[in-house]
Specification:
Length: 319
């Protein structure tokens, strides 16, 4: 390993870590007021910036939208060439800038004043034009960039990102935004699936293997083989009274038992595990792992509905 490269990498991480720790000193009344104005706004949060600050702005918008704060990104350069129509009177504008003195922002601010929008400055220079004109200021000053030339936005963009996360985290808490709320905005993601996919969404795609207590072993074998789930329920009056797996059949054969006169009730496992259709799939997965089983019978009001297999859950990306 090149010691010089390692040294430079560690110095970069230390400088950025120091910049983040220093942000704690800037959590003041302006931060509180910024959170409250976003929390109580009637419109959306419009986040704008230019250069690296614009990239940070897009990330903050994505975080806000996914956690219950309606937000939209507007590039500061595009804003002064027609995109100002994005901003509606009830919107709050969060403007991100290290210097706070870029020409695009200087042109943008008079429009916001005329339009009556509240302006939050997330800025690295509290003596800048942006900071002085904003209604609320979030101080993101950093002592130096991690760039060896102290030029490329590194510590400053990291600080901006972290301050945006701090805003989002406070809003999540104050809104009482829960993991189930989060799932509504992430229906296609793994976390969303863990929070909304239920057993009833999966078992219906499977066959429904079942035999009676007095079914002969030959028919039990055919039922298990034909339904391709490795198990069959033993059912009486619509209720599951037992289970027979392909493993049960193998063990029976290994013992050399004459099965020609046996019935399903003779080899079934009594009181097998069952689960309600409204149960989350992830809970079914946890139960299967805990009990070292690959299938669970789905039962509603004691009536047998079907079978859910561990593979049904895993193929949904739920682990």
């Amino acid at each position: 390993m090149n010691n010089e490269i390692s040294k430079l990498a560690i110095e970069t991480l230390q400088l950025e870590a120091d910049a983040l720790r220093n942000l704690q000193n800037f959590i003041d009344e302006g931060f509180d007021e910024s959170v409250n104005v976003i929390l109580n706004m009637k419109g959306r949060l419009v986040v704008t910036g230019i250069g690296k600050s614009a990239i940070v702005a897009q990330k903050i918008v994505a975080t806000m939208n996914s956690t219950g704060t309606p937000s939209v990104f507007m590039h500061a350069a595009d804003a002064i060439h027609g995109d100002l129509g994005i901003i509606q009177p009830d919107d709050v504008v969060l403007c991100i800038s290290k210097s706070g003195n870029t020409p695009e922002i200087s042109v943008l601010i008079p429009f916001l004043k005329m339009n009556g929008n509240k302006l939050i400055a997330l800025v690295g220079n509290i003596d800048s034009f942006l900071a002085k004109e904003a209604d609320y200021v979030l101080n993101c000053t950093v002592e130096q960039e991690a760039c060896p030339n102290n030029l490329a936005p590194t510590c400053s963009s990291t600080a901006q990102m972290a301050m945006g996360d701090a805003l989002a985290s406070c809003l999540i808490s104050l809104r009482g935004f829960t993991s189930r709320d989060f799932a509504k905005y992430h229906p296609g993601g793994i976390l969303g699936k863990r929070l909304y996919v239920k057993v009833e969404d999966l078992y219906k795609f499977n066959e429904k293997p079942q035999v009676s207590e007095d079914e002969c072993i030959q028919n039990v074998i055919l039922e298990i083989s034909g339904k391709c789930l490795g198990v069959t329920a033993v059912v009486k009056e619509g209720r599951v009274v037992g289970a027979i797996t392909d493993g049960d059949l193998r063990r029976m054969l290994q013992k050399g038992i004459d099965y020609t006169a046996l019935k399903a009730k003779d080899i079934m496992t009594k009181t097998p595990k069952t689960i309600a259709p409204q149960t989350l799939a992830v809970e079914a997965l946890d139960l299967m792992r805990k009990k070292h089983i690959t299938n669970i019978f789905v039962v509603d009001n004691e009536q047998y509905l079907g079978v859910i297999h561990i593979h049904d859950i895993l193929k949904e990306g739920i682990f």
